[in-house]
Amino acid sequence: MPSTSPDLLPETTRALRHRLAATQVSARAPSLVAAVVRDGRPVWLEGWGSVDGSPPGGDVQYRIGSITKTFVTLLALRLRDEGRLALADPLDRHLPGTAVGEATIGSLLSHTAGLAAEPPGPWWERSPGSLRPEVADVLLDHPLVHPPGRRFHYSNPGFALLGALVAQLRGKPWTEVLAAEVLEPLGMTRTGPHPAAPHAEGWAVHPWADVLLPEPIQDYGAMGPAGELWSTADDLARFAAFLLAGDERVLRADSLAEMRAPASAPEVSSWQSNYGLGTQLLRRGDRLLAGHTGSVPGFLATVWVSHDDELGVVALANTTAGIPIGGFTADLLELVADREPRIPAPWQPLPQVDGALLDLAGPWYWGPAAYILRPLADGWLELGSLAGGDRGTRLRPAADGTWVGQSGYFAGESLRPQRDDSGAVTHLDLGTFVFTRRPYDPAAVIPGGIDEPGWRTGSPTSA
Fold this sequence. Notes:
- The protein is α+β, with helices and mostly antiparallel strands.
- It has 2 domains: 10-339, DD-peptidase/beta-lactamase superfamily (Beta-lactamase); 356-436, Lipocalin (Beta Barrel), CATH 2.40.128.50.
- The protein has 9 helices and 19 strands.
- The chain has helices at residues 10-27, 67-81, 105-109, 156-170, 174-186, 233-245, 253-259, 325-339, 355-359; strands at 31-38, 41-49, 62-63, 203-205, 212-214, 230-231, 273-275, 280-284, 287-296, 299-306, 311-317, 362-366, 369-375, 381-385, 393-397, 403-405, 414-419, 425-430, 433-436.
- A hairpin with a 2-residue loop joins strand 8 (280-284) and strand 9.
- Helix 2 (67-81) crosses helix 4 (156-170) and helix 2 (67-81) packs across helix 5 (174-186).
- The protein is globular, with a radius of gyration of 26 Å.
- The termini are far apart.
- The relative contact order is 0.12.
- Keywords: Plasmid.
- This is Beta-lactamase family protein.
């Protein structure tokens, strides 16, 4: 279904179409559909192959597998933001009776609880959910395969527990909570636990012959939160737009940003990938992508976003294997980002700024190292090192008149202006780092003091 969108240059659209078509053909996938999202909407959407005799469009449902985990994470963080739980809480405090009650909610969200990757019994994604009707049925007799907190180990049962936790605290099935709290506000009317026409059939493609085998479509029961959902390219495009711009009706902006903060050490052999809270992270050169891939028998899916590029991309296929779906989807994003980079919005002066805040603007020095402090909208500050590195940060205003670092070395540290008897600012204290208006300003209180003769000239000599 060729795209009719005028939002991309014709040569970019053709390059996307070529990449889509070449991938569908080389993977011998029955169908493949993808979309690129910019400014809150798809600027390109196209399908290749066939679903019910036609190329798939944006309204055709596919199973999205583990992208389901990102949706479950939203529900858990909404409960956290309401004060119903904390990420440091042990699971047993809210969902008693499991064999892993000491695992924290945060460790389950980040796959660091040490749980086994899969539940006991036959391959759960091809088996009826009735084989595991209860939450206890998703855990092995000895459910831990690693010491808790030691390493990242992807666990499908961990998210089954999180879905049960949501149901326990909300008093209704997690799918109903998801529909009311996330899907409806975002307008994702074609996303849910069951397929509805038009939807793709799941297929396995023979590795050595161009023949197909249908994959069974199972209800996953208690394992549903690990990979149950169905969705469409249109709906996942809406989800990508949410991941980029946020929506306070669904999740606070700081909680959404928290999802994409690395929450575990990467494997030594794969430093380019990491995991946040229910969110995969992928480093491609200087570009950081956040989102999730999905894979269940018969289906592959991915949603990636790049906040620096203000771009999102989604892809859906109805084949069990054969497409490196995460890499393919990232390729589409990079293709657009490199050919048609984001055009920044026009510079605008701040609508207003407090005079006391403006007094803090300008150069500051940590010892001899030069920094610039700039006031931002809504009372935020931005501290940047003129030499570069990781010592810069954005700072959020706090109720007590201080500012709290949001990134880098100073994340979580407080900036406190220090004043003399007249009320004039003498220096800044940022997590005990003293910033002065002159390098090692003798008028400021600097740990270790200032050598009385001051700055020297000529060649250095021993004291």
